[in-house]
Amino acid sequence: MSNFNTSRREFLRISSLLGSAGALGVAAPFAINLATVASAAAQNNAGDYKALVCLFLYGANDHANTVLATDSESWNQYLSVRTTNEAGSIALPAVGATGGVLPITPNNAQAGRSFALHPNMPELRNLFNAGRAAILANVGPLVVPTTLTQYKAASVPLPPKLFSHNDQQSLWQAYAPEGAAYGWGGRMGDLLASNNSNPIFTAISASGNAVFLSGRTVKQYQVGSSGAVAIAGLSGSLYGSTMAGSTLRNIITSDSTNYFQKEHAATTSRAIAAQNMLAPAMAAAGPTGIPNPTQYTNPNTGALANNALAVQLQTVARIIAGRNALGAKRQVFFVSLGGFDTHDSQRTLQADLLARVSHAIAYFDTTMANVMGSDLRQQVTLFTASDFGRTFTSNGDGTDHGWGSHHFIVGGAVKGKDIYGSFPVTGLKHTLDVGSGSLLPQFSVDQYGATLGTWFGLSPTQINDVFPNITNFSARNLGFI
Predict the structure, then answer these.
(1) Rounded CA gap, 158 and 195, in Å?
(2) Does residue 126 contact residue 408 with C-beta atoms inside 8 Å?
(3) In sequence order, which residues have a C-beta less than 8 Å from that of residue 251 and are 6 or more positions away?
């Protein structure tokens, strides 16, 4: 704070923004955090905009068939395990073979090793080669840095309910098992919402309810593929009457002495106000606004098909295009794709899912290059997350629940064309194998999120607040952005 001199006018301006949050359903904090005020004032004076987009892969993506080591020793280990499991081969064709894995060459070469991506991720390979995509190797929930010996002896605190789908989805998004109240996307929103004239548009999901976006004061705003969701019947004709809509509005928004009715009316009024504000602010979908996604090619059938994930990202882009009308400086978005719990159908199902991921991310990157005439690639960062990685071996029904996994970070601010971290040994019974080739993470989700949060504008103190375990790790910023 010693280098920041907040004027009285700027302090009052930010205070008024915090106060106005209540008008759109975001409660103002009891006391203003001075670090937040300083951060907000500096960012607004800079006239900047930043957005984080979380792409969650529900069901647990098999990382070992997504990013692969292809040097001879690694590839031989890969083939020896993944072509002899009980469920049949899930090994992918080699580099250069028909439909083979796609080679990549990271800038930070790891001695004696070479790498590739899944055959159905050519667009993401192109983004990697262009320097706009990076890979974080072997990240997952950790409480403290943990060795295999410590894990087996349970001599250090371990994340709760490991290997459980629902709990690990929650742990990735909210540092606690299923039932967690606050996610780290929402908590970042809490601290930076004062940058936005309308804080209700700080945390936005295009994929239903997600604990990732739940804050203590910020409430996630959910949108559909067509944008803001209106309450049916309030406009136009209702039951053949042009007057019925206004009558319905009066019924559902009228004040009451009954506390439940009063709160329902207030919530409904805020929803109506938000929809009326967002709908005209969003860019249109199509030639006059945000281009519609092309279809992707289903690798199993060769047929063209619509990509619902790309449509979610189009919705995000349409909202970003309306950032000035919404008074938004900092926004956190959530999109998702399910179906990654593929079991012994992995070879076909994952191929289709990763084709959709690659196609959708490339569409989003291209779209961000021209958002209604503005190139926002430097200001928007997309990152992937998933329940957990997979075992390297099969349990007789495909790969089983794992722990650490590899993830992608994409955007103009990303220090791309690199794999961050030491890529784990391919095979079994190594120093990171907690069983059946499941990886003990080398990086924590806290470190992953803290790196993104630092770019997003959080101060070191705020990083400590949002990521409760970060003080246990020496590396707070992993350097990929």
Answers:
(1) 36
(2) no
(3) none
